[in-house]
Amino acid sequence: MQSIKNHLSLVVALLSILFSIQIFTIVDRSIEAYKEKLAMNYSMVVVSQKNLKTKELRKQHKLISYLEKLSPDSIIKKLDTGMSAKNIDFLKLTLPKFYKIKLTHFPTPSELEKLKKSILQIKGVKKIESFETTHNTTYKLLLLFKTVISTFSFAMIVVTVLLIFKELRIWQFKHNERMNIMGLFGAPVWLRSAVLFRLSIVDAFIASILGFVMFSIISSNKWVLDQFKTIGIEVVIFDPIFDFLFLLVIAVIVSILLATFIVLGHKEEV
Fold first, then answer.
1. Which of 24, 58, 98, 249 has its CA 20 to 30 A from that of 259?
2. CA atoms of 22 and 211, how far apart (whole Å)
3. Is the model's pLDDT at 32 over the cut of 90?
4. How many alpha carbons lie under 13 Å from residue 2 in its C-beta half-sphere?
């Protein structure tokens, strides 16, 4: 019973690390997906005295996806007070050209500022409306959310690693006598420590499998999927191949590293 309890403690601790890592991965994917959505809906308006072309603007900045010319009819309609067709045609010729610029991705505030400066250097461009205040507020909120999740995940991982280290020290104390006896018979260090490494690796596999089951259930949960649908984004919550292998590697590495530290500590005591 005590052995099962010790195994359970390490498995739960490893599972906590894997949970933190996967949650951070989901949040990161969600933010990137939301940025793509914002990039599709976000655009800048450029006022120019001459015709502009997409190739010309892309030479100035690779962030530009394409250029769309806006019709002046809506503006003229607001100004129309019974003008003749001839005057309307003349007004169309004298009005500046209005363009909507779509971007390849949702830019950072510094990228947006560089883009504005590079476009304003084009001859004929008079003004740019980038809706900078709204853009910067949205970007800072996304950055703040990611920072909070990252800090929480990192703190949880640190605390859990300390708990695992303490658990392995208990294992070392329990197997200390056996390891010393094996040492007296000339057994090498790796053989004396084989039990620690075997148990830690087995628990890493168990934690990874439990993580696979848990995140598979979460990724197919209707309530979770509805939340992403409400936001209007599609996110891979859990990839059964890539994510599972990644979590398995992390669990095994953490277990082996901590077991190695314990073995080195034992050698120092000897």
1. 24
2. 9
3. no
4. 4
